[in-house]
C-alpha cells in the first residue's frame, strides 16, 4: 500500500510573541525561526515518521528544489513534486507564551496545480492506496473525482475551511479529519455529538473529530469511539493537528483498527505540542510506542 499527500509546501516564518496581536495592535517579537512547512508537507512527514511508502505531490518555485532533499531526509518520496514560476507558498506564524498560535498563509505555487498534473500523479497509484488532501491547494474537485475513479481511498482535512468546499463532491471522501470549528463549519452544528450526527446524515465518510483538551472522536457506520488527551507541557501547537492526521491514517495503513489508530494519533499529537516547530516537533513511531502515561489521560 502507498499513501500520496497532494498538498501544500510553505516556508514557515515563526515569530515568538508574548501574546497574539489584536486588530490595530503592534507588538514586538522576541524570536524568529524559519522552517519548511505547509499542511501538506507537515502531514506527509507525520505519515512517513510512522509508515514507509509515503509520497508528496505539489508545487514549489523552481529555485526551491532543495525541498526534495528535505523530503527524502524525512522518509518521504519526492518523485511527484513539480516546479512553478510562482513563488513558493509561505506562512507567518505567531506563537505566544502559552504555545497558542495565529497563522496567515500565502498560497503562491500551491494554487497552481493543473488537472493534467493531478491525473499524471494519480496514475501512479492503485485501488486501495490512500490520497490525502487539505484546502491549501487548488484542483480539489479534480483530485476527488480522479482518486475515486481509480479506487483510491480519499482522506480530507478541509483546513483552512472555506464555504466553497461545500460545493465539492464531498460524497467521494472516505475519511474526514476535522477539528471542532471545522466540524461546525461543515455541518452547521456546534456540539460534538450533533456534529457527528449531522455529518453522518450528509456524508458517507468516516469522521475523525479532534476536540482539543477533550480528546478526539471517531464515527463510522453508527459506531462512535472516543479517546482522551495526555497531560503534557504545551510549548507550540503549530503541527498538532497535522501530526494527528498523519498518525491516524498511517495507523490504518499499518493495519490498526480505528481505536488503536485514535490512541496512537492522540499520543503523537501530545508529544508534538510539547516541542517547538512544525515538522521538527513530529515524533517518530518508536517514540509514540514508548509514550505510555495512562495516569495522565484526561477523559
List the helices and strands and how they pair.
Blueprint: E1 3-6, E2 10-17, E3 29-37, H1 39-48, E4 54-61, H2 66-73, E5 76-84, E6 89-95, E7 101-106, H3 115-122, E8 130-133, H4 140-149, E9 153-156, E10 175-179, H5 180-187, H6 192-202, E11 206-210, E12 216-220, E13 223-227, E14 229-230, H7 240-253, H8 258-273, H9 285-290, E15 297-298
Parallel strand pairs: 1-4, 1-8, 2-6, 4-5, 8-9, 9-10, 10-11
Antiparallel strand pairs: 2-3, 6-7, 11-12, 12-13, 14-15
Helix pairs in contact: 1-7, 3-4, 5-6, 7-8
Task: List descriptors.
299 residues, alpha/beta, nine-stranded mixed sheet, 9 helices, globular
In brief, what are we looking at here?
This protein has 299 residues and is of the alpha/beta class. The chain is built from 9 helices and 15 strands.
What can be said about the biggest beta sheet? 9 strands, mixed
**Could you spell the SSE succession in H and E letters?**
EEEHEHEEEHEHEEHHEEEEHHHE
Number of E strands: 15
- Report helical residue fraction: 25-40%
How many H/I helical runs?
Answer: 9
- Span between N and C termini? 34 Å
> What form results from the Cα inertia axes?
globular
How large is the share of residues in beta strands?
25-35%
Radius of gyration: 18 Å
Q: Can you characterise this structure?
A:
By secondary structure, this protein is of the alpha/beta class. Helix content is 30%, strand content 28%. The protein contains 9 helices and 15 strands. The protein has helices spanning 39-48, 66-73, 115-122, 140-149, 180-187, 192-202, 240-253, 258-273, 285-290; strands at 3-6, 10-17, 29-37, 54-61, 76-84, 89-95, 101-106, 130-133, 153-156, 175-179, 206-210, 216-220, 223-227, 229-230, 297-298. A hairpin with a 2-residue loop joins strand 12 and strand 13 (223-227). The model is unreliable at 294-299 (pLDDT under 50).
Amino acid at each position: 500500500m502507498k499513501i500520496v499527500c497532494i498538498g501544500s509546501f510553505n516556508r514557515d516564518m515563526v515569530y515568538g510573541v508574548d501574546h497574539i496581536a489584536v486588530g490595530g495592535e503592534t507588538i514586538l517579537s522576541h524570536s524568529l525561526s524559519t522552517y519548511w512547512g505547509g499542511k501538506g508537507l507537515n502531514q506527509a512527514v507525520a505519515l512517513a515518521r510512522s509508515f514507509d511508502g509515503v509520497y508528496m505531490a505539489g508545487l514549489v518555485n523552481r529555485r526551491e528544489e532543495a525541498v526534495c532533499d528535505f523530503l527524502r531526509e524525512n522518509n518521504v518520496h519526492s518523485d511527484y513534486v513539480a516546479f512553478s514560476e510562482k513563488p513558493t507558498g509561505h506562512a507567518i506564524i505567531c506563537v505566544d507564551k502559552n504555545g497558542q498560535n495565529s497563522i496567515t498563509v500565502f498560497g503562491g505555487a500551491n494554487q497552481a496545480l493543473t488537472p493534467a498534473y493531478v491525473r499524471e500523479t494519480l496514475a501512479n497509484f492503485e485501488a486501495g492506496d490512500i490520497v490525502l488532501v487539505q484546502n491549501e491547494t487548488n484542483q480539489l474537485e479534480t483530485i476527488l473525482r480522479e482518486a475515486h475513479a481509480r479506487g483510491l481511498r480519499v482522506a480530507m482535512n478541509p483546513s483552512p475551511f472555506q464555504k466553497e468546499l461545500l460545493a465539492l463532491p464531498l460524497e467521494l471522501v472516505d475519511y474526514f479529519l476535522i477539528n471542532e470549528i471545522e466540524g461546525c463549519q461543515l455541518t452547521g452544528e456546534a456540539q460534538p455529538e450533533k456534529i457527528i450526527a449531522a455529518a453522518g446524515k450528509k456524508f458517507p465518510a468516516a469522521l475523525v473529530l479532534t476536540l482539543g483538551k477533550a480528546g478526539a472522536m471517531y464515527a463510522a457506520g453508527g459506531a462512535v469511539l472516543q479517546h482522551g488527551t495526555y497531560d503534557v507541557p504545551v510549548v507550540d501547537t503549530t503541527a498538532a493537528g497535522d501530526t494527528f492526521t498523519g498518525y491516524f491514517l498511517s495507523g490504518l495503513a499499518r493495519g490498526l483498527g480505528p481505536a488503536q489508530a485514535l490512541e496512537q494519533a492522540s499520543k503523537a499529537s501530545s508529544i508534538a505540542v510539547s516541542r517547538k516547530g512544525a515538522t521538527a516537533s513530529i515524533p517518530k513511531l518508536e517514540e509514540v510506542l514508548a509514550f505510555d502515561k495512562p495516569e495522565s489521560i484526561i477523559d
